[in-house]
Design goal:
The protein is of the alpha+beta class. The chain has 13 helices and eight strands.
Length: 476
């Protein structure tokens, strides 16, 4: 049976696990499977955007499709091949022991049983193929078995590397690190559970714990197991690294050697690390290390700059506060001087200065012109603001200085004025004074009295606020 016939037969018997298959049928279909697998991996490497020789993922989309389409024909021809030498198809399960794979290879190269057996007729007689009576050469048999052993060994090593039991020959990124490897590093106190591994490499032969180095978010860690089976760990923070020196460039058969020099804050003068040059792993590791060293060396300088800026802002704020205090003191002094000047101008010795103003007050004040006296906007006025102006903020002095806290005209300065300030608590007087009249007098002042105009120091709305406060608080 030739290559085309064997391939065609296996797909015709797609899921046929009965009958027999000759050696030529089995091995030609195995060759077809090998070629198809290589083609699928080439396609997967193109999809992944990496060179074929660097591609090591067996679960790419093309490979996955090929596996799904060929798994049943492959199992079928393997079972029929066992039948051809009078073996039960269940023997194929020993392939999962890996060692049993070698025995299956031995059976696969055995000559078919001549004539019928318990699994069916001789497949070579059905296709009228000339039987070669001469058995396969012992040398060829030995070579096939030897290659099968080698293949099994590499498969086992590959599985061990994938699981992290056996160290990989390459520098690995943290996302490609096997969970088993990370668990071993944590359990041996090489890293913390919370550490994020950026890159990892172990030049150990059988275990990742023998020796290795790795990068985390804030430090480089190197470790080794001594002859006394003691694990020694060395680590250096990125901010404590001064320089990185290449001691020896590696190649396909040897690792690159680097010397990490610490600064005055480092716990060690230097650390020596080995990195695989395969797939430029050493270059990637060192570039990442240099990048993080640069970031951590710039960070303190940036923090110092920010601290200086913050200090400058605080000094500027303090200077501004002092300037505001100075202006406030100047304003207080000015008001004090105006109060003293005002007091000097007022007549002294008023016999009624010991108590509030008279009630009723026999004084005529100019009436507000037009309809102003009839206006009353106290309904929309702000009582709280009127109180503030009356007691504190009115210029050149607060209203209470003359009219008093109680609104009876008994303020500190009011006691010296003649005539006395308006007594807002006097019902007999205030019942004749409208809100509009009060607005007019506060705004324009009252000639012949100590009541000065406030039209330059208070807005109309603020005057109505004061009127509301007076009429609400004092006028009964």
């Amino acid at each position: 049976m030739n290559f085309v016939e064997a391939t065609k037969t296996c797909f015709i018997k797609y899921a046929d696990f009965s009958g027999r298959a000759s050696r030529s049928e089995y091995w030609y279909f195995s060759l077809f499977m090998l070629l198809l697998s290589i083609c699928s991996m080439i396609i997967d490497s193109i999809i992944a955007g990496v060179p074929f020789w660097e591609y090591d993922d067996w679960t790419g989309p093309a490979s996955l499709i090929v596996t799904i389409l060929t798994i049943l024909p492959a199992l079928g021809v393997s079972v029929r091949r066992l039948h051809d030498i009078d073996k039960s198809g269940w023997w194929i399960l020993i392939a999962f022991t890996f060692i049993g794979f070698i025995l299956l290879i031995h059976w696969a190269i055995k000559e078919s049983n001549i004539g019928d057996n318990q699994f069916g007729s001789d497949p070579l007689e059905k296709i009228n193929e000339e039987r070669i009576a001469k058995p396969i050469s012992k040398l060829v048999h030995f070579l096939v078995i030897f290659l099968a052993i080698i293949f099994t060994f590499f498969v086992l090593v590959g599985i061990g590397i994938k699981m992290g039991v056996i160290p990989d020959t390459m520098v690995l990124s943290g996302k490609d690190l096997a969970p088993y490897t990370r668990a071993k590093l944590v359990s041996n106190d090489i890293i913390l559970e919370s550490d994020n591994i950026i890159y990892f490499y172990s030049e150990g032969f059988l275990s990742v714990i023998e020796v290795g180095q790795l990068l985390t978010e804030d430090r480089i860690v190197s470790y080794e197991t001594t002859e006394n089976n003691q694990l020694e760990k060395y680590q250096m923070l990125y901010k404590n690294i001064k320089t990185i020196e290449l001691v020896e460039q590696g190649n396909f058969s040897s690792d690159s050697v680097y010397n990490i020099i610490g600064n005055e804050n480092a716990s060690y003068e230097s650390l020596t690390i080995l990195l695989s040059a395969e797939s430029d792993g050493d270059t990637k590791f060192i570039k990442e290390l240099e990048s993080r060293v640069l970031v951590h060396s710039v960070a303190p300088l940036e923090q110092d700059r920010l601290n200086l800026e913050e200090k400058g802002k605080r000094v500027a704020a303090l200077q501004l506060l002092n300037e505001e205090k100075r202006k406030l003191e100047e304003e207080k002094q000015r008001l004090k001087e105006e109060q003293e000047k005002f007091a000097r101008l007022m007549p002294r010795g008023n016999p009624s200065a010991k108590s509030g103003g008279k009630c009723p007050q026999p004084r005529k004040t100019k009436s507000a012109p037009g309809g102003i006296s009839k206006k009353d906007k106290t309904g929309k006025a702000n009582l709280a603001n009127g109180k503030k102006i009356y007691l504190k903020t009115a210029k050149p002095m607060a209203c209470k200085m003359c009219h008093g806290d109680k609104g009876d005209g008994g303020g500190k300065l009011g006691k010296a004025l003649k005539p006395r300030p308006r007594n807002f608590t006097c019902v007999a007087t205030m019942k004749k004074v409208s809100a509009g009249q009060m607005f007019y007098i506060i705004k324009n002042g009252s000639k012949g009295t100590g009541m000065v105009p406030h039209k330059k120091t208070l807005k109309d709305k603020e005057i109505w606020d004061v009127v509301k406060y007076i009429r609400t608080t004092f006028v009964k």
